[in-house]
Amino acid sequence: MPGGKERGAPPPSTQPSSMAGCFAQLAPERCLLRVKVVPKAKRTGILGVVGDALKVAVAAPPERGEANRELLEVLAATFGLAKSRLQLVRGGSSRNKVVELALPGEAALQRLASALE
């Protein structure tokens, strides 16, 4: 490749402007977060923002809800919430999911920004 650059998808973004795009809804009491999950990853963690979703890797396989449970654990730790304050709203059997956070939208943005630093 010219200039030593590889082709493929752009790397996940950690820019504040792109972080707001991964929230489907920002409300005073809650927010909806779009998530793209990478199951059976070597390491569990937040990879960044890709397109309009937060990309999260989980080591658990996508079987019997294991990856969904691990995803909610990662998000709970990232946003400083109890697991009971998160709910999988859409995408139970898909890599693309929507998760409801019982957290004001502005606080969710700030916590995500600090987690991605």
Structure description:
- The chain is of the alpha+beta class and 117 residues long.
- The protein has a single domain, classed as YggU-like (Conserved Hypothetical Protein Mth637, Chain: A).
- The chain is built from three helices and six strands, in the order H-E-E-E-E-H-E-E-H.
- Strands 1, 2, 3, 4, 5 and 6 form a six-stranded mixed β-sheet that branches.
CATH homologous superfamily identity: YggU-like
Tally of distinct domains: 1
Cα-to-Cα separation, first versus last residue = 31 Å
In the predicted model, the low-confidence regions spanning at least 5 consecutive residues are 1-17
What name is given to the CATH topology? Conserved Hypothetical Protein Mth637, Chain: A
Radius of gyration: 14 Å
Structural class: alpha+beta
Query: Could you spell the SSE succession in H and E letters?
Result: HEEEEHEEH
User: Biggest β-sheet, characterized?
Assistant: 6 strands, mixed
Please describe the topology of this protein.
Elements: H1 16-20, E1 23-26, E2 31-38, E3 45-50, E4 53-57, H2 66-79, E5 86-90, E6 96-101, H3 105-115
Parallel strand pairs: 2-4
Antiparallel strand pairs: 1-2, 2-6, 3-4, 5-6
Task: Summarize this structure as a short list of keywords or feature phrases.
117 residues, Conserved Hypothetical Protein Mth637, Chain: A, six-stranded mixed β-sheet, 3 helices, 6 strands, 29% strand, globular
Question: Quick summary of this structure?
Answer:
This protein is an alpha+beta fold and 117 residues long.
